[in-house]
Write a sequence for this structure.
């Protein structure tokens, strides 16, 4: 029997949750003894593969690219984990929601720019009207709040998932 | 002589004096009934609805902080339904305004955060309302960020009942409800505020905070009162 | 001339009544001068009628300002008292015709049938409406006014008065239907040297105008009812809490208080007895929640109008922490008649535990928009079709909304249901203060639920979390449904949230706010599903948005 396939995805977030994942330190060896990492910003796979068992999603859904990505991820993943506050509540990316996209971009790219101010139009994906928690876009199976969730919590959750238990998220909380 | 009532909370036999509330007797007996507007020392108002309990024989739920005990009453303070309702109330407090724990001065010192953790709220089913709300940083020492206010009105009550200044009050209604200083003027221009800092001390979230504190540094324990008042008194030449 | 509200001016210019009349009148024209007809220039009609009759030399004709004649949709209204002939939509051009009709009135004339709108009603609280001049104490007394109070003060003990009210079976007409006699007895027995009587005239349900009409048409009756209540519960001070949006009612009430004080019907030593009672008016500043009794009390005390948990009930601890009797306008308006005609007579009207009559304000898609009083137990069909004249343009009846924002929608299958406190609750609605909003097939029931939710979220005082945040959350989900952007999960969440708000809110506003959702889901779930699953609004009211990538 092949090993379970784990992926991690980075949407609109600061990568802090991924840093916390790296903080598992030597326990990473234990995890990847028992599972394969098939997609992640930490490794060099270009496309999100089919048939993923567990995917940790960091970050809010903020752009059309995020939206496209999360739908694909949901299609190809059995257990989707909303990983950290940005994914769970939209957190810091969501601070722009009361402001609106127009004034937000103006502030960043026009008002505070002295040389050749212009709105980005190429390469960067278009922003959605609001930065949205993942579960308001696709179905989420496990919520792990925290900014970031501690390495201990991440380990407990992964350990549970890989052992076929209902993932324990006791002790998880918003913020730190 | 006070009359003693014996009754039950969650199946446990307890006793209290006439005039006590269910909340008080529960506390004395180590039964935790959650609450955010309740604070010992100021009047209760039964507004946050987290302390709602079932009382056998009554079809309605009752706020434990406002319900006086009675002989033989049978209180259920914890049940699946109550837990679900309390989670929803907590969720409502989060989605009402713009709580961003990660960048909040009260991060890790916040009763709302604690409430969510204690009740096992890991995400919000309700959509965020994301209103545009103000921050008033006009006071010399303190600021209020309405984004984080849950309208428990502890500040209003402590200012009125303990400090006796009645600087804080409430304006508007519904989702537009805001705490205000004097008649809605900036806090820094208030002539009634004594800068005692009691409001900051009792605020359960990071809505009221001391200026100059970094994220997560807004611990509310061991806060000084007199030094703050001294600073302002000296500035006013008193 | 200084700026004065139109209503206040109307009171100052109290020139018309009995102006033309010298000696006993052979013919009398009643001109409705309640708010609805006033807004259609009824006062101008009164003046013109008086002038015209004088010009015609009809010295035995009386032109009289009266309160609401009931058929508000057809105002301005003029009725010839002797023949019962009713002129509707009266314009200045019609005045000569009315004078002509007045000229022809013979002493042998009797009142002809005025049709089911009037014939099927039973008038108790509104018995003087459209009969007495609301600004004349003499006229009120001439119609039996203050008879009851005189009897009470001279011949009865307060316990006897309370017994009469208890035996009459009268229940609170403000909505909840609490037995009035029991409330009076509780206040009477409560400990306290000072007690108060408060009349709740903070009527705020959309489409409801019963209390306004009673105050505009017969303010002395309310004062008499309050005074009797004060005697029965040993109170010496009273307040009428009336919303400021009712300037005419307030002006007439204030005038009535002044007149009653001068005549010794209010104040120290009423009717030459040792009993004293006085009344003040307090104006509400436009908050619906102040109709809730504890919020109302806070507002009278000069504090922010927010409710507090009960108990303690106001009957034990109310205004300034003193025992306080709070009844609604219509409840007090029933009291003088009950004492005049006897508890048995009153208890003989009605159905089961719902005794007496109820005033309803008919509104919405109904032909005879207006104010009616019917015996409890009359069927909804009789009210809507016989009295109300059916649906405008003969369209199919869909539902009637009762009980305001805390009430529910009753579908056609319950049209033959007798109206009572119990039956309305059984079908998922609520008596409320008496607003009846009739809807036809052009109404979308999801849209109706959304309208009431919008009302509740706007009127939520903001004190308790479930109501402050929850009503907006419910509204947001309903809004998504009406746009065709909701899922069945959203519908499940709507129901879950509604139940939580109903059980967790502090006062009746929040507890009742989900009722329009419950009742529309109970009878019109198919319409919700049409919006969600088929993405169509069956009534064609809602604008379904094109499907989008994400919500």
């Amino acid at each position: 029997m092949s090993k379970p396939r784990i992926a991690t995805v980075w949407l609109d977030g600061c990568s802090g949750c991924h840093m916390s994942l790296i903080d598992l330190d030597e326990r990473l060896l234990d995890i990847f003894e028992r599972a394969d990492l098939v997609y992640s910003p930490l490794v060099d796979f270009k496309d999100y593969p089919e048939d993923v068992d567990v995917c940790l999603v960091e970050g809010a859904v903020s752009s059309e690219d995020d939206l496209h990505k999360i739908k694909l991820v949901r299609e190809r993943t059995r257990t989707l984990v909303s990983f950290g506050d940005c994914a769970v509540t939209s957190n810091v990316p969501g601070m722009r929601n009361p402001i609106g996209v127009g004034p937000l971009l103006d502030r960043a790219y026009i008002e505070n720019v002295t040389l050749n101010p212009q709105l980005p139009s190429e390469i960067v994906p278009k922003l959605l009207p609001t930065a949205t928690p993942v579960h308001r876009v696709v179905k989420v199976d496990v919520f792990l709040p925290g900014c970031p969730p501690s390495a201990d919590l991440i380990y407990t959750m992964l350990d549970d998932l890989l052992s076929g238990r209902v993932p324990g998220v006791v002790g998880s909380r918003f913020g730190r | 002589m006070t009359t003693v009532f014996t009754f039950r909370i969650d199946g446990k036999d307890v006793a209290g004096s006439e005039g006590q509330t269910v909340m008080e007797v529960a506390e004395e007996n180590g039964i935790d009934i959650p609450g955010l507007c309740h604070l010992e020392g100021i009047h209760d108002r039964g507004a946050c609805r987290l302390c709602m309990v079932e009382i056998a024989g009554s079809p309605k739920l009752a706020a434990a902080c406002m319900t006086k005990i009675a002989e033989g009453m049978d209180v259920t303070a914890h049940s699946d339904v109550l837990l679900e309702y309390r989670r929803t109330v907590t969720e409502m407090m989060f989605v009402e305004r713009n709580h961003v724990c990660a960048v909040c001065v009260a991060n890790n010192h916040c009763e709302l955060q604690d409430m969510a953790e204690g009740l096992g709220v890991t995400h919000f089913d309700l959509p965020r309302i994301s209103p545009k709300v103000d921050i008033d940083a006009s006071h010399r020492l303190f600021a209020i960020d309405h984004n984080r206010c849950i309208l428990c009105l502890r500040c209003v009550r402590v200012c009125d009942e303990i400090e006796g200044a009645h600087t804080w009050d409430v304006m508007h209604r519904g989702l537009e409800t805001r705490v205000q200083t004097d008649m809605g003027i900036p806090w820094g221009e208030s002539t009634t505020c004594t800068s005692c800092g009691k409001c900051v001390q009792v605020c359960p979230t990071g809505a009221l905070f001391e200026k100059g504190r970094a994220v997560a540094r807004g611990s509310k324990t061991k806060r000084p009162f007199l030094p703050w008042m001294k600073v302002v008194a000296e500035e006013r030449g008193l | 001339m200084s700026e004065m509200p139109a209503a206040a001016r109307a009171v100052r210019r109290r020139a018309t009544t009995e102006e033309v009349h010298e000696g006993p009148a052979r013919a009398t024209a009643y001109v409705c001068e309640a708010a609805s007809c006033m807004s259609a220039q009824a006062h101008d009609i009164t003046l013109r009628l008086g002038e015209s009759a004088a010009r015609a030399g009809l010295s035995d004709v009386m032109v009289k300002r009266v309160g609401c004649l009931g058929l508000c949709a057809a105002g301005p209204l003029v009725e010839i008292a002797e023949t019962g002939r009713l002129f509707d939509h009266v314009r200045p051009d019609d005045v000569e015709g009315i004078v002509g009709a007045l000229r022809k009135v013979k002493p042998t004339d009797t009142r002809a049938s005025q049709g089911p709108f009037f014939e099927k009603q039973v008038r108790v609280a509104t018995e003087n409406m459209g009969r007495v001049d609301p600004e004349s104490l003499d006229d009120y007394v001439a119609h039996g006014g203050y008879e009851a109070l005189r009897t009470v003060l001279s011949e009865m003990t307060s316990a006897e008065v309370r017994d009469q009210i208890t035996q009459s079976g009268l229940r609170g007409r403000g909505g909840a239907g609490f037995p009035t006699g029991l409330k009076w007895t509780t206040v009477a027995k409560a400990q306290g040297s000072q007690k108060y009587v408060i009349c709740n005239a903070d009527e705020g349900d959309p489409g409801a105008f019963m209390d306004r009409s009673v105050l505009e048409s017969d303010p002395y009756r309310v004062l008499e009812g309050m005074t009797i209540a004060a005697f029965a519960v040993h109170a010496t001070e009273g307040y009428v809490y009336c919303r400021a949006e009712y300037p005419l009612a307030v002006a007439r009430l204030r005038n009535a208080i002044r007149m009653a004080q001068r005549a010794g019907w209010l104040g120290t030593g009423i009717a030459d007895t040792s009993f004293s009672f006085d009344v003040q008016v307090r104006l509400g500043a436009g908050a619906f929640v102040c109709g809730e009794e504890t919020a109302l009390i806070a507002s009278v005390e000069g504090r922010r109008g927010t409710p507090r948990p009960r108990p303690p009930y106001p009957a034990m601890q109310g205004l300034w922490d003193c025992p306080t009797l709070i009844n609604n306008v219509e409840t007090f308006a029933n009291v003088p008649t009950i004492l005049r005609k006897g508890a048995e007579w009153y208890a003989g009207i009605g159905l089961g535990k719902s005794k007496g009559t109820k005033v309803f304000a008919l509104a919405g898609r109904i032909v005879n928009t207006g104010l009616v009083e019917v015996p409890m137990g009359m069927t909804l069909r009789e009210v809507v079709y016989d009295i109300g004249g059916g649906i405008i343009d003969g369209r199919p009846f869909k539902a009637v909304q009762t009980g305001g924002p805390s009430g529910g929608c009753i579908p056609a299958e319950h049209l033959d249901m007798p109206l009572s406190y119990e039956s309305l609750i059984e079908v998922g609605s609520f008596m409320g203060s008496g607003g009846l909003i009739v809807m036809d097939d052009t109404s979308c029931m999801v849209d109706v639920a959304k309208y009431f939710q919008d009302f509740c979220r706007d009127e939520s005082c903001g004190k308790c979390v479930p109501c402050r945040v929850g009503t907006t959350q419910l509204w947001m989900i309903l809004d998504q449904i009406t746009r065709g952007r909701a899922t069945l999960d959203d519908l499940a969440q709507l129901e879950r949230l509604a139940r939580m708000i109903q059980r967790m809110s502090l006062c009746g506003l929040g507890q009742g706010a989900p009722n329009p959702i419950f009742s529309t889901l109970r009878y019109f779930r198919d319409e919700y599903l049409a919006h969600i699953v088929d993405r169509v609004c069956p009534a064609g009211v809602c604008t379904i948005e094109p499907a989008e990538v994400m919500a």
Observations:
- The longest helix of chain B spans residues 80-96.
- The beta strands of chain B are 4-9, 12-17, 52-55, 62-63, 74-76, 135-136, 142-145, 168-171, 178-181, 208-210.
